[in-house]
Design a protein that fits this description.
Elements: E1 5-9, H1 13-25, E2 29-33, H2 36-45, E3 50-54, H3 62-72, E4 78-82, H4 87-95, E5 100-103, H5 108-127, E6 131-134, E7 137-140, E8 145-148, E9 151-153, H6 157-168, H7 176-183, H8 194-206, E10 215-218, E11 222-225
Parallel strand pairs: 1-2, 1-3, 3-4, 4-5
Antiparallel strand pairs: 6-7, 7-8, 8-9, 10-11
Helix pairs in contact: 2-3, 6-8
The chain binds calcium ion.
Calcium ion (CA) binds at residues 11-12, 54, 56-57.
Length: 229
């Protein structure tokens, strides 16, 4: 396996150094920035396969840094490390383009499983890069472009992943926990409304203004993306 390079941006030295050591022991290359601005410089100057990102940081905070990383590289996986655990924090992080969240204090083995899952998902997407389609909705996995009836739809990274998952399961009901596990790699407390919030974002962008909606709610069960209404 080729070397996987991970950037750790974390100002708590003890946590950062323990992460680096743990990752090294598991055959990952890891570099540490103890400051957001330095992390941003390192990211631009390096070639990283994944970023572990604290939120409260000196220099740029984790959300700002995540947005900067996203505009520079839309596909590199970003995992947020946070002591906060509210729906609002999660939404803010995902809005900034984070792929996953780990709540501190975390178990290193769990973090490792999540890191491997994220890397696998990215590689899987790269390997199958083609066109996904439902009716007049098209998603190009290579160029990351989405169109509805020929018109470009601009999606955030998370909305794109959610739509990709729905498209890969088209004409099949997917539950909120299916979505949480497959799009966020997280066992969300299904009482939280993060999933519904994101499905609504997506609907506004792809279904609003069309007579034939593609995304449907299956009351009590979840969501279904359909070819035909
Ligand atoms: Ca911190």
């Amino acid at each position: 396996m080729q070397d996987i390079h991970i950037l750790i941006v974390e100002d708590e030295k003890k946590i950062a150094d323990a992460l680096k050591q743990g990752l090294n022991e598991n055959a990952f290359e890891a570099e540490v920035a103890y400051d957001g601005t330095i992390g941003w410089k390192m990211f631009q100057g390096g070639s990283f396969d994944l970023v572990l990102l604290d939120i409260n940081l000196p220099g740029m905070n984790g959300y700002e840094l995540c947005r900067a990383i996203r505009s520079f590289n839309p596909s590199v996986p970003v995992m947020m490390l946070t002591a906060m655990n509210t729906v609002e924090d999660k939404i803010e992080g995902f809005d900034a383009g984070a792929d996953d969240y780990v709540i501190k204090p975390f178990d290193f083995r769990e973090l490792l499983v999540r890191i491997r899952a994220l890397l696998k998902r990215i590689h899987r997407t790269a390997a199958t890069g083609t066109l996904l389609q439902a009716g007049d909705l098209q998603m190009n996995l290579d160029s990351k472009e989405v169109t509805r009836n020929g018109q470009q739809v601009s999606l955030t990274a998370k909305e794109f992943q959610l739509l990709e998952y729905l498209l890969r399961n088209k004409n099949r009901v997917v539950s909120r926990s299916d979505i949480a596990l497959n799009v966020w790699d997280i066992d969300f407390d299904t009482k939280t409304n993060v999933i519904d919030v994101y499905v609504n974002y997506l609907r506004k962008k792809i279904d609003k203004g069309f007579d034939n909606p593609i995304i449907h709610t299956q009351v009590g069960m979840g969501y279904i993306l359909k070819d035909k209404s």
